[in-house]
Amino acid sequence: xxxxxxxxxxxxxxxxxxxxxxxxxxxxxxxxxxxxxxxxxxxxxxxxxxxxxxxxxxxxxxxxxxxxxxxxxxxxxxxxxxxxxxxxxxxxxxxxxxxxxxxxxxxxxxxxxxxxxxxxxxxxxxxxxxxxxxxxxxxxxxxxxxxxxxxxxxxxxxxxxxxxxxxxxxxxxxxxxxxxxxxxxxxxxxxxxxxxxxxxxxxxxxxxxxxxxxxxxxxxxxxxxxxxxxxxxxxxxxxxxxxxxxxxxxxxxxxxxxxxxxxxxxxxxxxxxxxxxxxxxxxxxxxxxxxxxxxxxxxxxxxxxxxxxxxxxxxxxxxxxxxxxxxxxxxxxxxxxxxxxxxxxxxxxxxxxxxxxxxxxxxxxxxxxxxxxxxxxxxxxxxxxxxxxxxxxxxxxxxxxxxxxxxxxxxxxxxxxxxxxxxxxxxxxxxxxxxxxxxxxxxxxxxxxxxxxxxxxxxxxxxxxxxxxxxxxxxxxxxxxxxxxxxxxxxxxxxxxxxxxxxxxxxxxxxxxxxxxxxxxxxx
Length: 524
Prior knowledge:
With about 525 residues, the chain is α/β, with parallel strands linked by helices. It is about 50% helix and about 10% strand. Helix 10 links the parallel strand 9 and strand 10. Helix 4 packs antiparallel against helix 5 (about 125-145). The two termini are about 40 Å apart.
C-alpha cells in the first residue's frame, strides 16, 4: 500500500475544505428555507424530484431538529476539524475526521434510501448534500492513508487494551496463542480479508524501505522466530505491516517441545516466560505445508537442533542442523533468508554452540552446503562480553553469515524489570520482552561498534513502541524483530511503529531510516 505523500495530502485536505464549503452552502440554504417556511423550487419533474414531499415529510426532522440544521453542524464540524489538522501541533484531530465522515456517509445512505423507497420522491438539494458527504468520506478514507492507519490503529489499541486483552489474559497463554495463529491462518487464506487487513493496518513508506543481501524489506519491523513455529502466518503478516517474518524455529525432526508450562505471563514485568524448546512439526511437514500456497512478503526460516536427548555429540547436532538446511534448500519454497538459532536456552541436548570450537565445526558443516540465501545467526544475550566477542569473531570468518540477531531470551531472573513474585511462579523457562531490553541494547551497540562493516544487525528484545525500535536502530540495528510487544500492546503495534518511525525521522531531520543506523554508537 502506498503511503500518502505531502502533495496528495494537501490536495486531499483542500478538496475536503472545498467540498465542505459547498455542502455548508447547500445545507445553509435548506436551513434558511425551513426557517422562512418556504419550499425550494425543485419540483420540475426531473428524476421524480419533489422537494416539498421530502422536506415536509416526517423524516425531515430528528427529535424535532430539522435535518438541514444538522447538515450545517456537520459541514461546520468537517471544516473546523480539517482546518485544525493544518497545524502540526494539532495532528491528533486527524483521527476525528474518520468517525465524523463515516457518520455522514452512512447517514446519507440512509436518507437516500428513505427518499427513494419510503417517501418516493427526490430532493435535489438533499441529494446534492448526500453526494458531497459521500465524496468527502471517500477522500478521507481512500486518499489519506497515513491518517487512516493511525486512526484505525488508535481505535484498535483502545479496543485491545480495554476489551480483548483482559479477556484473552483470563485464558492460558498457550491456548490463546494457538487460537490467534489459527485465526491468522484463516484470514490469510482469503484475498478479501488480506486486502481488508492491509487497508486497515499496512503503511508503506519509502523512508523505511531497505535492501540487504538481495532481500528487499518494505519495513524494518519483522516477526521474530518463536511465534509462528507451525508456519501458519505466511499469508497474512505482510497485510499487518510486517516487513518480514521468521517461521520456526524449525528442526529436522518433529518436536512437541518441553513439558508444560511452555508459556507464562508476567504482566507487571512486561514479559513472557518461554519454555517451548523448539516446538514445531519438523522440516518435512513445514515444507509440504508451505508448498501448497503462496507466501507473501519476505519469509525467513529459523533452523536449530532438534530438541531431543538422542543428540549426544557435536557431530550429531551438526548433521541434524545441516539436514534441515538441505531440505529447505532443495525445496521449491520462495523463502528469502535463514536464521541459524544457536542460542535457545531451553533444550534437552547439552551441545553448546556458545563454545567457539563447537561453533566452528557447525559453520564448517553449513559452509559445505553452498547455501543460496543469506544467513543471520540468533545470538544469546546471557553471556559475558568476552564470550559474545568470541562468537562474533568466529562468525566473521564464515562468508555465508551476513548478520546477527541480538538477541534471544533473558536467563537472568533478577534482570530489570522482572518482579520477583512473578518470576517465582515459574521454575522453568526464560524471559522475553522488557527484561531483555537493556542487555540486548548493550550488545547491539557492542557488535555494531566493531563489526558495522561486516554484519547486518537485527535488533530483538523489548520493543513495545516506535521509540523502542528507533532506539535499537540508532544503536546499530538495521532491522528489528518483536513478539512480546505485539501480545501486550496489540496487533496494531506494527503499523504504529512504521508510522512512528517516519515521524521520528522527520523530528530529527533525517530523510531515510538508513541515516540513523548506529549514530548513537562509537565505531571502532
